[in-house]
Amino acid sequence: MARTSLRTRRDLVSLGDHVRTWRKIHGLTAQLVADRAGITRTTLRAIETGTGTVSLENTFAVLRVLGVADAVVGATDPLTTEMGRFHAERALPQRVRVPN
Length: 100
Description:
single chain; mainly alpha; about 0% strand; elongated; HTH cro/C1-type domain-containing protein; Lambda_DNA-bd_dom_sf; Cro/C1-type_HTH
């Protein structure tokens, strides 16, 4: 297994801090969020602290409970960036022809 880079570690910790803050903003206990997401409290703790190897599925289950999953998915949409739109436009054909 590859080692986790320092940058990735920091990002995981930051994401976990944000998840914890969203949970508190909603006034939800860790146990309630874990139950609603269908995960254990230990798994939620791992997400909130940025430790362990939590599955993306479990992370998104928590994000969905907190109401921010759509924002996270939207933030990764390449067509929301200038670079993504530029490359998408380059990949589109100049003309579309009707098949014979």
